[in-house]
Design goal:
single chain, mainly beta, globular
Length: 222
């Protein structure tokens, strides 16, 4: 019923974006209220997003933003600044656009199929050390299991996820895990990007379950 306008630029890792496929997304309480891509405006020599944000309230709602980084194929969920919705208002201007800065936190959902799945965790996630928080969005059932090569946690309807993975401090980036679930689901996974060149994966003699640190597909040789 109501709308406001926002003029901004997108910054990813402190670099102003010039990718017209990048998207600026406005959300209120997780609901998308506006989305637009960048466009080059020669009169200002800037790539800018002209975004309409919608609401059924005249004002007061907290508008949060996300950025789709098309070149990386990633969603950045920690973006500053937030804005307050105000009907018919204009935030930013072509000669002074708001800089929407994506912090080093990205959203990397992990799809699960019913039965067994191989997964690895390639972000520095704030919930990695707590399996219950890591798998909080998964509708787990009695007997569901997550296991590394040597440890495992099992789900109980009465107490949640418990076992030797939790006792050992949670999941690790350098390991791969098998997880068995009773229905298709998604791990709502998020965290900071890791530098693959700075991460070490120690390999023992015999079989190893190694984690994939990179955010892109790479060849086995690489």
């Amino acid at each position: 019923q109501y709308s406001m306008s926002v003029i901004g630029q997108i910054s990813v890792d402190s670099i102003i974006s010039t990718d017209e496929e990048d998207l600026l997304v406005a959300k209120v309480d997780g609901e998308v209220r506006g989305v637009t891509n960048l466009k080059y405006y020669s009169q200002y020599d800037k790539y800018m997003a002209f975004l309409d944000v919608y609401s059924d309230s005249l004002g007061g709602e907290l508008v949060e933003f996300e950025i789709w980084d098309a070149s990386e194929g990633k969603v950045h969920i920690e973006v500053t600044p937030d804005l307050t919705f105000n009907n018919n208002s204009l935030e930013g201007a072509p000669n002074n656009p708001i800089i929407f800065n994506a912090l080093n936190i990205i959203y990397e959902p992990i799809a699960l199929k019913k039965g067994w799945n191989w997964v690895s965790f390639n972000l520095n996630s704030p919930v990695a050390n707590d399996v219950n928080k890591l798998l909080d969005g998964v509708a787990a059932s009695n007997g569901d299991v997550i296991k590394s090569k040597t440890k495992y946690d099992q789900y109980s309807n009465s107490i949640g996820w418990v076992g030797s993975i939790t006792a050992d401090g949670g999941t690790r980036n350098d390991e791969t895990y098998k997880i068995k679930v009773s229905q298709d689901d998604i791990i709502e996974y998020y965290g900071a990007k890791l530098d693959p060149t700075a991460e070490k994966i120690y390999i023992d003699s015999g079989w190893n379950w190694i984690g994939v640190i990179a955010l892109r597909k790479v060849s086995v040789e690489d």
